[in-house]
């Protein structure tokens, strides 16, 4: 039986939901997945940092209201997040990065991921910034250090879109992808159809845990822009930069527009797409589209998302599932940990695994 010691960077909706899963289902994971999980460090901009290399007792932290959590004064606690020190120095097997997504330069999450990989620690992240803006560099860094860089939750939350493409569509030529890739905007468009005004719908999406810390990224399409970059780079080998993906969001759509569309048999959807041109380059965009009711993406409602892969041998293959949500996204992190286990340690029965890694590195 292996054990993975985790350092959680950011303790907001997603990483807190992961801690809840570990607290509630840890025994089941051991039985079904062949490993146990222990949290040895947590950092958060608001709560500070907490380190216990013997394993943090999660119950009292999870019992506290998120906004009231403070690690200062606890044994091993500090008011300062101390991200760099925790990531580099605390012995952990996996660094789980779930701080705010920064669509401009990916920071500070990009540095968090770099520090972890350079320290020989695996990384799982739901943060789209580092993956979209520096994915190739980070994969190279991970390979150099013999560790994994996993990011299933960066596109479509816990719905396994990236692993489906990587593992199940081998041998096909994927010529393009098209999808609804933002839970917040899709939820909001549904509320607009019901006559709810945009600011109210945004507040509801925030309360449900779908929206970014700054929901502008959801409404103006920047979140989908990053996801299109990730998908296109992963499945089309596109190497897109942000300026390569034209981007229009849903802020110009009113409840009246949404209801008028319904009366004409149409539904407004925020569609992200990337397609290979005949010369091999990739064209990508994010824009609202009024889809006819018979379109495969028109029936995708609420925080549910879907991605259609256009392929040569199978035609169109569409995968649909949750696109946002705290627990759904925490599941993506669990699926990343399972992938790390399968890739590196499935045959090990030693614990803790960071010692195995350190011994391997010492040669
Ligand atoms: N919530 C979802 O449905 C969802 C789905 C997929 C991906 N994501 C991504 O996952 C990440 C986390 O999402 P969330 O919903 O938990 O967000 P959140 O805003 O609830 O939590 C983010 C946490 O990170 C902390 N933080 C920010 N900067 C920090 C720093 N420099 N050091 C330490 N802590 C820092 C904040 O204090 C906050 O508690 C985001 O990047 C988001 O884009 C979220
Ligand atoms: N805010 C994002 C979270 C998932 O990346 C969304 O609504 O889709």
Automatic annotation (TrEMBL):
<dbReference type="GO" id="GO:0004412">
    <property type="term" value="F:homoserine dehydrogenase activity"/>
</dbReference>
<feature type="binding site">
    <location>
        <position position="212"/>
    </location>
    <ligand>
        <name>L-homoserine</name>
    </ligand>
</feature>
<keyword id="KW-0560">Oxidoreductase</keyword>
<keyword id="KW-0028">Amino-acid biosynthesis</keyword>
<comment type="similarity">
    <text>Belongs to the homoserine dehydrogenase family.</text>
</comment>
<feature type="active site" description="Proton donor">
    <location>
        <position position="227"/>
    </location>
</feature>
<keyword id="KW-0791">Threonine biosynthesis</keyword>
<dbReference type="InterPro" id="IPR019811">
    <property type="entry name" value="HDH_CS"/>
</dbReference>
<keyword id="KW-0521">NADP</keyword>
<comment type="function">
    <text>Catalyzes the conversion of L-aspartate-beta-semialdehyde (L-Asa) to L-homoserine (L-Hse), the third step in the biosynthesis of threonine and methionine from aspartate.</text>
</comment>
<protein>
    <recommendedName>
        <fullName>Homoserine dehydrogenase</fullName>
        <ecNumber>1.1.1.3</ecNumber>
    </recommendedName>
</protein>
<dbReference type="GO" id="GO:0009088">
    <property type="term" value="P:threonine biosynthetic process"/>
</dbReference>
<dbReference type="Pfam" id="PF00742">
    <property type="entry name" value="Homoserine_dh"/>
</dbReference>
<dbReference type="InterPro" id="IPR036291">
    <property type="entry name" value="NAD(P)-bd_dom_sf"/>
</dbReference>
<comment type="pathway">
    <text>Amino-acid biosynthesis; L-methionine biosynthesis via de novo pathway; L-homoserine from L-aspartate: step 3/3.</text>
</comment>
<feature type="domain" description="Homoserine dehydrogenase catalytic">
    <location>
        <begin position="160"/>
        <end position="338"/>
    </location>
</feature>
<dbReference type="InterPro" id="IPR022697">
    <property type="entry name" value="HDH_short"/>
</dbReference>
<dbReference type="InterPro" id="IPR001342">
    <property type="entry name" value="HDH_cat"/>
</dbReference>
<comment type="pathway">
    <text>Amino-acid biosynthesis; L-threonine biosynthesis; L-threonine from L-aspartate: step 3/5.</text>
</comment>
<keyword id="KW-0486">Methionine biosynthesis</keyword>
<dbReference type="GO" id="GO:0009086">
    <property type="term" value="P:methionine biosynthetic process"/>
</dbReference>
<feature type="binding site">
    <location>
        <position position="128"/>
    </location>
    <ligand>
        <name>NADPH</name>
    </ligand>
</feature>
<keyword id="KW-0915">Sodium</keyword>
């Amino acid at each position: 039986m292996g054990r993975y010691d985790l350092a959680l960077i950011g303790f907001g909706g997603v990483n807190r939901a992961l801690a809840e899963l570990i607290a509630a289902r840890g025994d089941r994971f051991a039985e079904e997945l062949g490993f146990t999980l222990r949290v040895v460090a947590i950092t958060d901009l608001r709560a500070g940092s907490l380190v216990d290399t013997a394993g943090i007792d999660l119950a009292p932290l999870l019992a506290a209201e998120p906004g009231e959590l403070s690690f200062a004064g606890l044994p091993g606690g500090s008011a300062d997040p101390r991200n760099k020190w925790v990531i580099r120095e605390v012995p952990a097997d996996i660094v789980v990065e779930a701080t705010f997504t920064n669509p401009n330069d990916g920071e500070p999450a990009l540095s968090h991921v770099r520090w972890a990989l350079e320290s020989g620690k695996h990384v799982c992240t739901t943060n789209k910034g580092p993956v979209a803006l520096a994915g190739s560099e980070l994969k190279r860094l991970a390979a150099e250090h013999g560790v994994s860089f996993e990011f299933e939750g960066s596109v479509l939350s816990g719905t396994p879109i990236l692993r489906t493409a990587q593992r199940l569509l081998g041998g096909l030529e994927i010529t393009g992808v098209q999808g609804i890739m933002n839970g917040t905007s899709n939820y909001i468009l549904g509320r607009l159809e019901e006559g709810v005004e945009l600011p109210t719908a945004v507040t509801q999406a925030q309360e449900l845990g779908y929206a970014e810390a700054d929901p502008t990224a959801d409404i103006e399409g920047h979140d989908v822009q990053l996801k299109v970059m990730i998908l296109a780079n992963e499945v089309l080998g596109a190497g897109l930069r942000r300026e390569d993906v034209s981007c229009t969001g849903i802020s110009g759509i009113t409840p009246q527009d949404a209801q008028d569309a319904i009366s004409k048999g149409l539904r407004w959807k925020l569609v992200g797409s990337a397609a290979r041109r005949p010369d091999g380059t990739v064209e990508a965009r994010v824009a609202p589209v009024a889809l006819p009711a018979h379109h495969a993406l028109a029936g995708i409602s609420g925080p549910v998302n879907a991605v259609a892969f256009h392929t040569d041998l199978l035609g169109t293959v569409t995968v649909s599932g949750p696109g946002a949500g705290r627990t759904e996204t925490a599941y993506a992190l669990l699926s990343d940990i399972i992938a790390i286990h399968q890739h590196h340690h499935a045959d090990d029965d030693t614990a803790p695994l960071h010692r195995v890694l350190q011994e391997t590195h010492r040669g």
